[in-house]
């Protein structure tokens, strides 16, 4: 599933993530580059790859279920008045080149291709930085440009008629354990209260680890959070929650998510302090 062209990100000399640039995956999984495994500084894995419950969940990356009708998420497509449906409509994100590649990060160019046509061109910037001796930050920015001659739009199952299923954008498939992780923000806690809401940051805590995700731009903070803990552990930032996101020819959509990856179960104050440091450094 991997190739030799798979950078390893390091923090303080320790490997914390591997980036799979050219995965060998079936078309149904919407092949795309991803980070896996991502680990804490102590070595605890905090991502999953193609788990049995959702084989198209690929660690950490960008996945969108509807780009002008093409599936860049993987799996079935939600069709209005019909439900999840197997369609031959899957696209692929194709690595073009690294503009920059260092031990702690990279800048990458990608092409989003479906049905033989390039729809979007992406610049992806990923950086890993040390925060403390038990926490580091993954800074992930993606900029997608409409390279076609016509307007296109990004949608989700929610915009196609399935309430609450507004997944699509930056997505982190977290470690699955015997007990579901806890989730909280600065003001509330629990999947039911947080899913679909806007919050500057969100924390997911497992048995011995914590992830704290934050939108690092105004546009990103306006996107509601997609949260799952009971069915499976996963968090995303929704590009198309209430309505489709239009992109005119030549226009670019930019989003930046910074994630604190920490050993231990952080409390609210610790999570807030670390994510503030991560976003502002």
Would you give an account of this structure?
This protein has about 280 residues and is mainly beta. It has helices at about 190-195, 220, 270-280, and strands spanning about 10, 15-20, 35-40, 60-65, 70, 75-80, 85, 90-100, 105-115, 115-130, 135-145, 150-155, 170-175, 180-185, 200-205, 210-215, 225-230, 235, 245, 250-265. The longest helix has 13 residues, at about 270-280. The mean pLDDT is about 95.
Q: Globular, elongated, flat, extended or rod-shaped: what is the shape?
A: globular
Number of helices: 3
Rg on CA atoms, Å: 17 Å
- Look at the structure and give the mean pLDDT: 96
- What is the straight-line distance between the termini? 35 Å
For the largest sheet, list the strands in their spatial order.
8-9-10-11-20-16-15-14
- Please state the structural category: mainly beta
- Got a strand count? 20
Q: Sheet with the most strands?
A: 8 strands, antiparallel
Strand content: over 45%
Low-confidence stretches: none
Helical proportion, percent range: under 10%
Order of helical and strand elements: EEEEEEEEEEEEEEHEEHEEEEH
Features:
single chain, mainly beta, 8-stranded antiparallel beta sheet, 7-stranded antiparallel beta sheet, globular
């Amino acid at each position: 599933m991997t190739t030799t062209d798979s950078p390893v990100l390091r923090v303080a000399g320790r490997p914390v993530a591997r980036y799979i640039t050219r995965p060998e995956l079936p078309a149904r999984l919407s092949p795309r580059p991803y980070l896996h495994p991502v680990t804490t500084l102590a070595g605890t894995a905090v991502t999953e790859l193609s788990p049995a419950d959702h084989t198209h969940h690929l660690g950490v990356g960008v996945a969108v279920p509807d780009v002008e009708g093409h599936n860049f998420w993987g799996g079935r497509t939600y069709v209005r008045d019909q439900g999840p449906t197997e369609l031959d409509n899957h696209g692929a994100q194709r690595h073009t080149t690294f503009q920059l590649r260092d031990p702690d990060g990279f800048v990458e160019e990608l092409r989003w291709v479906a049905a033989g046509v390039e729809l979007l061109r992406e610049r992806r910037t990923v950086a890993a930085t040390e925060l403390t001796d038990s926490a580091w930050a993954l800074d992930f920015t993606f900029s997608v440009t409409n390279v076609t001659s016509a307007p296109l739009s990004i949608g989700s199952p929610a915009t196609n008629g399935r309430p609450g299923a507004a997944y699509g954008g930056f997505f982190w498939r977290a470690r699955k354990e015997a007990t579901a992780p806890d989730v909280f923000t600065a003001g509330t806690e629990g999947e039911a209260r947080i899913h679909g809401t806007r919050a500057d940051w969100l924390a997911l805590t497992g048995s011995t680890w914590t992830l704290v995700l934050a939108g690092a731009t105004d546009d990103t903070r306006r996107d509601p959070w997609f949260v799952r803990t009971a069915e499976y552990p996963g968090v995303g930032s929704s590009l198309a929650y209430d309505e489709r996101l239009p992109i005119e020819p030549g226009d670019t959509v930019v989003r930046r998510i910074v994630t604190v990856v920490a050993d231990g179960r952080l409390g609210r104050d610790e999570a807030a302090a670390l994510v503030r440091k991560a976003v502002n450094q």
